[in-house]
Amino acid sequence: MNNIPVMKVGIVGVSRDCFPASLTENRLNALVEAYSKKYSADDIFRAPTIIIESETDMVKALGELKDAGCNALCVYLGNFGPEISETLLAKHFDGPKMVIAAAEESQKDLIDGRGDAYCGMLNASYNLALRNVKAYIPENPVGTAEECADMIHEFLPIARVAYGLANLKIISFGPRPANFLACNAPIKQLYNLGVEIEEESELDLFEAFQKHEGDGRIPEVAADMAAEMHYEKGKEPAMLTKLAQYELTLKDWVEEHRGYRKFVALTTKCWPAFQDMFHFVPCYVNSRLMKQGIPVSCEVDIYGTLSEYIGLCVSQDEVTLLDINNTVPHDMYEESIQGKFDYKFTDTFMGFHCGNTCSNKLINPKLSFQRIMSRTHPQDWCDGTIEGDIAPSKITFYRLQSTADNKLRAYAAEGEVLPVSTRSFGSIGVFAIHEMGRFYRYELIGKNFPHHGAVMFGHYGKALYDALKYIGVDPSEIGYNQPAGVRYEDENPFA
Length: 495
Fold this sequence. Notes:
36% of the residues lie in helices and 22% in strands. It has 495 residues and is an alpha/beta fold. The protein folds into 2 domains: 9-165, Rossmann fold; 167-480, no CATH class. The chain has a 6-stranded antiparallel barrel with strand order 10-11-16-15-14-17. Strands 2-1-3-4-5 form a 5-stranded parallel beta sheet, with helices on both faces. Strands 7-6-8-9 form a 4-stranded parallel beta sheet.
């Protein structure tokens, strides 16, 4: 299922009428060639029209972008640039946009070959602000053809997040479990982000599940589950039939309820009544839908699934949602971490969830029962988790949240999953993030974040930070793990 945006960036060259248009023409040719050589030519489209001072050129270029199916825009200043026409282009383009500019090529050509785009970028940014136009401007927005090609490629995950959220519907089956205020979800900020939300009852979900009993597609899905979990023919557990029925229920609901939205994420209530009525737990199905590009957060964590979807767009890889769960025992640290890895004891913790992490991110995954729920329910009503230690990997731990005061706040921290056996249950790993102890106290606790965090499998902090800024999160509200010697605002200087 194509549930992640595929971006096509339309590149429009602009030129001020008192500068040679050939500067933009030649530099634009070099940029397109550099991008096509290093990345995929399918990512970009060069608009034939070069915008000079004419607003009619701007309208013509917009039409070219639309006809080519572009859903993102790059305004490229080949020289100083026409500040009005270029910013009108950005204003009227419906989709994420960026502005970059050409650097001078050689000391041998600084008379007729000087473009002054370094100066033009200042005017462009000023005019964007005057017109309240939001555009991505890279850290060093003026560069050679190769450098500008890299900038466009780095824009792709930012554009995927912005375009994805503008076309996303979150379907939520709730309400949240009692005594679970941690996943409080003020929905006003979802609308501010352009996200639609459809809130349903778990009774509606149960009714839909019952109507799927005997669905002719169940054996095929159950066989796919058996193959994924490496069961021998004839030795598949009986639970797979119910899990396949549930997976089909959710996927059909997505198609029947997506409405006009292109992309969908889900969140479901998974306890305590779920086991009583469905007689299984949904964790493994959640993991399978993530592998198909549909995040499903548990415990009706609306901002959890939103965070997962953002990570999916950034990384184009499966993500997971975990509890920031428990400390690493001292004897485990001393035996398996101390002296072997560059982490203090307080840098380590365990990330855990009952069993929603994709099988390809786990070591020796297996289907099991939900041990926590089995303390209050019959064990065979709790089948359906996927268990295994999370495979060693670089990670980015992060979350976007609308807090109780209706502000958007986020955090991000890069670290890794260590190759240390957890000796525990569920989907679980030993995580290490430098200065995690202080980050935990002054960012996560201090800023009232819930216990769920999303995990991308790789270091994606730079792209995530820029994407969060682009969609409207105040940079002062994006926390990260401060290095040693840099105090948090309310950190005791004498501690």
